[in-house]
Design goal:
Blueprint lengths: L1 E8 L9 H10 L7 E6 L5 E7 L13 E5 L2 E11 L2 H9 L2 E2 L2 E2 L8 H12 L9 E9 L4 E6 L8 E4 L3 E5 L2 H4 L11 H10 L13 E2 L4 E5 L4 E5 L17 H19 L6 E4 L4 H14 L6 E7 L1 H4 L6 H11 L2 E7 L1 H15 L7 H13 L4 E3 L4 H5 L3 H15 L2 H14 L5 H9 L3 H4 L8 H7 L2 H4 L5 H11 L5 H27 L4 E3 L5 H9 L13 H6 L6 H4 L10 H6 L3 H9 L9 H13 L5 H17 L5
Parallel strand pairs: 15-16, 15-18, 16-17, 18-19
Antiparallel strand pairs: 1-3, 1-11, 2-3, 4-5, 5-8, 6-7, 8-9, 9-13, 10-11, 10-12, 13-14
Helix pairs in contact: 2-3, 6-7, 6-21, 7-9, 10-11, 10-27, 11-20, 14-15, 25-26
C-alpha cells in the first residue's frame, strides 16, 4: 500500500515543475508511504514520477519504486499503489517463459511490483486480466512515449488525474494534483449538487473542475496523439428469472465458503503482521472465524474494535460485547478504543483533509481511531467491507421491492396522491414521507442508492447556484439503470450501489482512514471472484423470506453462533444526533450559522434546521453533518468561495 504521483508532457517541452515541486506534493500525503519516498525523472524526456512506500512485501530497499524494466518494446518505468495478491502464481508463469532456452524474465526481489512490470511487458494491457488485487498502476514506456494508467476492478485504490495543455498529471489524492494545474480549479457546482444528493460525489468528475477519477475497472492509455479510456471489467448479472451460477442453494453455500477461504489465504501474503477490524457484526466476525479455521491455531489473530462512551450515549453505540464474544471464542489478541465527543470534534479538520473529497461518512472518524490503535500492533488489517453490496445486506433493498410491488398495484395517480398527503402532514427527513415520495416514481428515478438525502432539503436549503447547476451525476446514475434493464430489481440495486456508494463512500473511507495511519486495509469480500460469484446468483439466494445475506449466514453456520449470525447490523454506529444537541452544539453554531456559506445554502433554512435539531423537535443530524463536512472542505480547499 503506497502513494503515487507523476507528470508527463508529450510534446517534448520540459516539465514546468521539478523535484522540489513533486517532493512538496508527496509530503502532503506522506502517511501513505512512511518507509521510502523516492522520485525518478527521465534524463531526456519530460517525465517525472514519485512513489511513497509502505513496505509490505520484501521490505528491502531493492523493492522501492519507481521501478524499471528494459524490454525490446522499450524501457518501462512504473509506480504502483496497492497489492496484486496472486503475484506468486503470475511470477511462476512468467519464469517458465524461455527465449533460446533461457528464462525471459528473472526477478531480483520478491515484490509484486516486479511481477506487474514483467506481466505488462509480456501481455500488454491484457495483463490486467491476470491480476487479483487492489491497485492503481502507472506505467511509462520510453520507446513510444506513452502512459498507461490502471485502476482495480472495484475501485479499492484511488487514482486521480488532470489533463494539462501538454500532457497529464496523476496521483493517489486530489490535493497532490491540484498544485500542478496552472490555475486553481474552480468548483464544479454540479458535483456539489451530487454531494448534497448522495453525501459524496459519483462518477468521473470531482468537485474540482478538470480533476477526474479514473473509474473502477478502467484503464487509460495516453500519448501525444491518443487518449483511450477502456472499461476492461464489468459485473455480469442474471436476467430476471435466471441463475447464472447453475448451482443449487446448498452448492452455492459450499462454493461461496471455498472462494472466501481462498480470498483470505491470498490476503495473508505479507512480510509484516496482519490483524482484523472486528465490530462484532456478521461480516467482520466471518473474517475472524474463517481466518481462525485457516490458521489452525498456528498464529494468534490480532483484532481491533472501537466504541463510544456508553455512560454518555447508551448501549446502542457500543458493540464491544459482540466483538468480545468473537474474540473470546477464537482466542484473539483484542484491543478496543473508547471514543468521546471531544475525540470526534478535534479530528474533524484532519478527517476532511485526509478524506481529500467531501464525503459524509461519520463512521470514518471511528475508523481513524481504530486504525491508530491497530497501527501499534500490525501493518496490514482485514475488514468485512463489501459484503452488504454483494450479498444484499441492507433493509432498503426489501423496502424498495415492497415499493415496486405497491406501485404495480396502485395507479401512478394514486401514488402521487399519497405523496402529496405525506408532504403536507409529515416533516422533512421523516422516513414515511421519504418512501411515500419515492413510491410516486418509477424505479429508474426512485432508486438512488443507500446514502440519499431527502429531496425536500434541496428545495428549501440549496441556493439556485447549486440546485440548478449543470451536472453529470444524473447521467451517470441513469446510465447504470440503462445497463441493468431486464435484470431483477435486487441485482439492479446491487449494481448501482457497487458503482456509487461502495466505491465513492465506503472504499474511499477505508483507503483514507487506514492510510492516514500508515496502515494497509485489505477487503477479502471484494476479491473479484467473490463479486462475480455473488452476482451470478439469483436474488432468492441472497434475501430469503426477508432474511438478508442468507447465503453468507449459511456459509458461517458451522463457524459462528446464532447470536452473531442473526444480530441486527450496526457497524461502528456514531451518536451524531446526541452529540449535535450537546457537546458539539457550539461547534455547529460557529461552523454553519456564523460562517459565510451563502453561495451554497440559504441561511434561514440552515438556522431552522439547526434550531429544530437543538430543541429535539426534529432529527436533522444527517444533513447537519453533511453541511459541516462541506463547510470544512471549502475552508481548506476553496476559501475564495467563503
Amino acid at each position: 500500500m503506497c502513494g503515487i504521483i507523476g507528470a508527463v508532457n508529450f510534446n517534448d517541452t520540459a516539465l514546468l515543475h521539478g523535484e522540489e515541486m513533486m517532493s512538496q506534493q508527496m509530503q502532503k500525503m506522506s502517511y501513505r508511504g512512511p518507509d521510502a519516498q523516492e522520485q525518478w525523472a527521465h534524463p531526456d524526456q519530460p517525465v517525472r514520477m514519485g512513489h511513497l512506500r509502505l513496505s509490505i512485501l520484501d521490505t528491502r530497499p531493492e523493492g522501492n519504486q519507481p521501478m524499471h524494466l528494459d524490454t525490446p518494446q522499450g524501457r518501462l518505468s512504473m509506480v504502483f499503489n496497492g497489492e496484486v495478491y496472486n503475484y506468486i502464481e503470475i511470477r511462476e508463469r512468467l519464469s517458465a517463459i524461455t527465449v533460446d532456452g533461457h528464462p525471459k524474465y528473472t526477478f531480483k526481489t520478491t515484490t509484486d511490483s516486479e511481477v506487474i512490470l514483467a506481466a505488462y511487458a509480456e501481455w500488454g494491457a491484457d495483463c490486467i486480466s491476470q491480476f487479483n488485487g487492489m491497485f492503481a498502476i502507472a506505467i511509462y514506456n520510453e520507446k513510444d512515449r506513452s502512459l498507461f494508467l490502471i485502476r482495480d476492478r472495484l475501485g479499492i485504490k484511488p487514482l486521480y488525474y488532470a489533463l494539462t495543455e501538454d500532457g497529464i498529471v496523476f496521483a493517489s489524492e486530489i490535493k497532490a494534483v491540484r498544485p500542478y494545474l496552472t490555475e486553481t480549479p474552480i468548483l464544479n457546482m454540479g458535483q456539489i449538487q451530487s454531494y448534497m444528493l448522495y453525501g459524496y460525489g459519483v462518477g468521473e468528475k470531482t468537485c474540482d473542475e478538470g480533476i477526474l477519477r479514473l473509474l473502477p475497472g478502467h484503464s487509460l492509455y495516453l500519448n501525444a496523439d491518443t487518449k483511450e479510456i477502456n472499461r476492461y471489467w464489468a459485473i455480469a448479472r442474471p436476467r430476471k428469472g435466471q441463475n447464472n451460477s447453475g448451482l443449487s442453494y446448498d452448492e452455492a453455500v459450499k462454493k461461496g465458503l471455498s472462494l472466501f477461504e481462498d480470498a483470505l489465504k491470498l490476503r495473508l501474503r505479507a512480510d509484516v503482521d496482519v490483524g482484523v477490524f472486528l465490530s462484532g457484526g456478521l461480516d467482520s466476525s466471518a473474517v475472524v472465524a474463517t481466518l481462525h479455521k485457516l490458521l489452525e491455531g498456528k498464529r494468534q489473530i490480532k483484532t481491533f474494535s472501537v466504541r463510544y462512551d456508553t455512560v454518555s450515549y447508551g448501549e446502542g453505540y457500543d458493540e464491544t460485547k459482540y466483538a468480545d464474544m468473537v474474540s473470546e471464542m477464537f482466542g484473539t489478541d483484542h484491543h478496543t478504543y473508547t471514543m468521546t465527543a471531544n475525540d470526534f470534534a478535534k479530528y474533524i479538520p484532519e478527517y476532511v483533509s485526509t478524506m481529500d473529497e467531501p464525503v459524509t461518512e461519520a463512521a470514518a472518524i471511528s475508523l481513524h481511531f481504530v486504525s491508530e490503535i491497530a497501527k501499534k500492533h500490525a501493518t496490514v488489517v482485514l475488514s468485512g467491507e463489501g459484503s452488504d453490496e454483494i450479498f444484499g445486506g441492507y433493509d432498503l433493498y426489501s423496502y424498495m421491492q415492497v415499493l415496486e410491488t405497491l406501485r404495480r398495484i396502485a395507479t401512478p395517480s394514486g401514488a402521487g396522491i399519497v405523496k402529496k398527503i405525506a408532504q403536507k402532514v409529515l416533516p422533512a427527513g421523516n422516513k414515511i414521507r421519504k418512501y411515500a415520495e419515492l413510491a410516486a416514481l418509477p424505479f429508474e428515478e426512485r432508486y438512488r442508492g443507500i446514502s440519499v438525502y431527502d429531496q425536500s432539503y434541496h428545495d428549501t436549503l440549496l441556493t439556485d447556484a447549486v440546485r440548478l447547476a449543470d451536472n453529470d451525476h444524473n447521467d451517470f446514475a441513469l446510465s447504470i439503470m440503462e445497463e441493468t434493464k431486464g435484470q431483477d430489481i435486487l441485482s439492479r440495486m446491487l449494481e448501482f450501489d457497487t458503482r456509487t456508494w461502495l466505491v465513492d463512500d465506503l472504499l474511499i473511507k477505508a483507503d483514507r482512514m487506514s492510510m492516514g495511519s500508515s496502515l494497509e486495509l485489505r477487503v477479502p469480500f471484494l476479491d473479484y471472484r467473490m463479486v462475480e460469484f455473488a452476482a451470478s446468483l439469483p436474488p432468492e439466494y441472497k434475501i430469503r423470506k426477508g432474511d438478508y445475506k442468507s447465503i453468507l449466514k449459511d456459509m458461517m453456520t458451522d463457524l459462528l453462533p446464532p447470536d452473531i449470525i442473526r444480530r441486527k447490523k450496526l457497524g461502528f454506529p456514531t451518536p451524531l444526533s446526541k452529540m449535535f444537541q450537546g457537546p458539539l452544539k457550539g461547534y455547529i453554531q460557529d461552523t454553519l450559522l456564523s460562517g459565510n456559506l451563502g453561495v451554497f445554502f440559504k441561511h434561514d433554512a440552515m438556522l431552522r434546521i439547526c434550531e429544530e435539531h437543538f430543541a429535539g423537535n426534529q432529527d436533522h443530524h444527517r444533513i447537519i453533518w453533511q453541511l459541516i463536512v462541506l463547510a470544512e472542505w471549502l475552508k481548506q480547499n476553496h476559501p475564495e468561495y467563503l
